[in-house]
Here is the input.
Amino acid sequence: MTYETHQSHGSAAPAVARRNKVPEITAYFWVIKVLCTTVGETAADYLNAQLGLGLTGTSCVVTALLAFALVAQFRTAAYRPGVYWLVVVLVSVVGTLISDNLTDNLGVPLEATTAVFAVALAATFILWFKAEGTLSIHRVDSVRRERFFWAAVLFTFALGTAAGDLVAERMALGYWVAAVLFGLVIAAVALAHYAMGLGTVLSFWTVYVLTRPLGASVGDYLSQPSDEGGLGLGTVMTSALFLAVILGLVVFLTVSRRDVTDGEQFSPPAA
Here is the structure.
């Protein structure tokens, strides 16, 4: 917990306690993150294609929902699993749509969008560190840190979308093989962190980016028709299934409070 002092008419108001606004980084965290990423991919496809909203219409609707969710998140006094993960789901959809709009509507090459989002993410980290003197992913306990945190999360989803699409387009691996490939890269990052001392912040955000194309590959494999290399469950069934699992895990964490902690540990997901 930290304390913020507010200035009023030249005098300092009493310090206001602020609690940590992010969960502990555990296996639960990574499972829900991948599920949210999968929903981001399938839900965007459903709204865009099956409901006929198009990329522009879908982007407007989901961005408005994200704005309301972020207001709720910033108004919470501490980490609340339901609100936090709702924001992550919506950010995953918006991040996907930003990349898709640039590529599909504006014709920007994937190489360019990948580079732009990588620079934007790096700039966010530079500004964050300059303002706070830390990039701690365990202590997001001020409004300014929370702003930087969610900006970084948005850019990771956009970067993961662009980079994942670029790899899939260039290598034409297929959904299942792509998922295995990204899982192996994540495992390599985890090994580098635990065995070779790769920094916690770098490890975390690298895995955070990579879980986006991992989740998207799983989502596409489940939802796309069999003649396109998928299982043919469809976007509705896949989205509903994953949302149900997310809801169950969030309810469990809300009741058990197993991810509410001040610990300083990092647990990359198993590939």
